[in-house]
Design a protein that fits this description.
four-stranded antiparallel β-sheet, 16 strands, six-stranded mixed β-sheet, Aminopeptidase, alpha/beta, single chain, 8 helices, 26% strand, 2 domains, binds zinc ion, Alpha-Beta Plaits
Length: 354
């Protein structure tokens, strides 16, 4: 009965939600500057008389839906930011902000969040307790810490009504439309950026004997780093070490003074995470020394691993089976190596990331 009512209410607003998603897609903004995004969201709900609380970490805000009877409070996390990249496809709703694109799908998450708020608000006579929809900026900003931990620090979970459990969702290309899935335990990887600064001795390309070549040091260092997963990490522990940037030199005929290597580490286990950090430091520092230079490693512990709690997973699984059908529940066999700052919510309260 309730399920039919929900379906009816969802289909009644589906056109306006699709339109909202496309509007958000046209106006993507990078982490920390989701001002127009927030304005579009508030505009979309201006006729609904929602209880809105602003002021959580810049553009973060919450919509609180209070059920007619008292009870516990669950939080739904919705991320808001886009990525620094050009949109190459040509759709009528393509990005209007050059160099920025909703490539991770957070435009979809925001539209889903607004739809949930509208439907839950319509049905608030039907449930006990409260739902706090948490619209969170800066999910993509792993190098500066991400929005989730700052919203938590600003009291988004503790403020009345206090959130006792969290649900997050990410749209996912491996699943078919109409399917949803999750798993117990680790769901997304810990994601740690690192930077290695190598200092050699610059000079003319024709006199390498009078120089210390930082490009050669960087090359050996990168090869050495690729032995960490294959030679140091337990073969039953998944881990990734990727170098995404290598910068050095300004001319073909000089030996530069410095080189920098920038990369990321993905792990699911804390011991493995610590081990890889240590090995990166050892390899970078000793390789540089071996070739006469010096290396400094700047390793940042970024987002921790998203860890799903069993009770919350069971609850999500039951709902997915009921609403989408048994055949559309996907038991996600392996966690994903992507990073996700929903992890900070999973550290505070029982949570599920779907
Ligand atoms: Zn994302």
């Amino acid at each position: 009965m309730l399920r039919e009512l929900i379906e009816e209410k969802v289909s009644a607003i589906s056109e306006q939600i699709i339109e909202l998603r496309r509007k958000l897609h046209q106006h993507p903004e990078v982490s920390g500057s989701e001002f127009e995004t927030k304005a579009i969201l508030l505009e979309a709900i201006k006729d609904y008389d929602f209880e809105i609380v602003e002021g959580y970490y810049n553009t973060g805000f919450v919509i609180i839906i209070r059920g007619s009877k008292p009870g516990r409070t669950i939080g739904l996390r919705v991320d808001m930011d886009a990525l620094e990249m050009d949109e190459l496809v040509d759709k009528p709703f393509k990005s209007q902000n050059s160099g920025v694109m909703h490539a991770c799908g957070h435009d979809g998450h925001m539209a889903m969040g607004i739809a949930a708020a509208i439907v839950l608000n319509d049905l608030k006579d039907q449930f006990q307790g409260n739902v706090k929809l948490i619209f969170q900026p800066a999910e993509e900003n792993a190098r500066s810490g991400g929005g989730a931990q700052f919203m938590i620090a600003d009291g988004v979970l503790e403020d009345e009504p206090r959130v006792e459990a969290m649900v997050g969702m990410h749209i996912w290309p491996d699943l078919m439309v109409g399917q949803a899935g999750t798993r117990v335990g680790p769901m997304m990887a810990a994601s740690d950026p690192f930077k290695i600064d190598i200092v050699g001795q610059g000079g003319h390309a024709s006199m390498p004997n009078k120089c210390v070549d930082p490009i050669l040091i960087a090359s050996h260092t990168i090869l050495g780093l690729q032995s960490v997963v294959s030679r140091n990490v337990d073969p039953f522990e998944p881990a990734v070490v990727t170098i995404g940037m290598l910068n050095s030199g300004t001319r073909y005929n000089t030996i530069p003074e410095t080189a920098e290597i920038i990369g990321t580490v993905r792990t699911f286990d804390e011991t493995t995470r610590q081990l890889i950090k240590t090995r990166i430091e050892q390899i970078a520092e000793t390789t540089a020394t071996a070739y006469g230079g010096k290396a400094t490693v700047n390793y940042t512990f970024g987002y921790p691993s998203v860890v799903n709690e069993k009770g919350m997973v069971d609850c999500a699984e039951q709902s997915i089976r009921e609403v989408l059908g048994d055949e559309n529940y996907v038991n996600v066999e392996r966690p994903a190596p992507g990073g996700e700052d929903f992890a900070y919510f999973t550290q505070k309260v029982p949570s599920v990331f779907i």
